[in-house]
Give the backbone structure.
Amino acid sequence: MSASDIENIKKEADRIMGIYTRDRLKDDVKILDPKEIIKGTHAYAKGKAYDIKERDPPNQEYITSSFEYIQRVLALAGYRLADILKPILEKIKVD
């Protein structure tokens, strides 16, 4: 992976976090139980993906809303991971 690739990833992460701020997702960030997280993503999939008929291409509305949902989930996963790692990393001494 090149330095340019890494820079592009950072820019995209900043863009997504600008849209889906921690404050905007504050209620969902608190949910750390994997079973509860799975329930939420399953409910979304059931309401969206399962509505597409087999062999039919997804329409533009589906593609757009799914892309927005994926960005939201990525931001949420990052915030949750940071919250899980923060107390662990605070205990590590760095010279």
